[in-house]
Amino acid sequence: MEHLSVNEIHRRFEELDGWDMVNDGISKLFEFEDFRKAMEFVNKIAEESEKENHHPDITVSYSKVTLFLVTHSANGLTHKDFKLAKIIDQLV
Amino acid sequence: MEHLSVNEIHRRFEELDGWDMVNDGISKLFEFEDFRKAMEFVNKIAEESEKENHHPDITVSYSKVTLFLVTHSANGLTHKDFKLAKIIDQLV
After folding, report:
1. Which residues from chain B sit within 8 angstroms of residue A64, using beta carbons?
2. Model ipTM?
3. What is the mean pLDDT of each run of 10 residues along chain B (92 residues)?
């Protein structure tokens, strides 16, 4: 799989809310009430990631969850990243 | 709670296996077969963390789980960190 063109990345990125460009990927911070709520979210992400066969890097720091999405095999962003970002945003 | 003395940190650190000193805390990388196994480990850690009321920073990158332990309220390492590190090592 090849990564998307700069124009296509820009177009898809504009459709997202609260995500940032970080290095070659996209990242978003989610904040919850406490660790338990953060972990509930992480487990929902895990389930969807397995379905999509695409996995964000996930960092949990007590009530904060930071996600990072990139397609390593494409050395950049692909449709898989934007698809999973949208799915994740609907989990909150 | 005050952080441990340098001598005490050294003594407790020597008791651990595979942990590194990183900034003011301790860190360890665990590698699993796949994402699912990594998440199983993360959920065990989450359970123990809630029991201990002490939570490591957890980063999941597909099959790799990196943990970071420090006691923020003490600005350094305390008995809580070393206790949880030992508990976590027994979960694998």
Report:
1. none
2. 0.95
3. 94 97 97 98 98 98 98 96 98 93
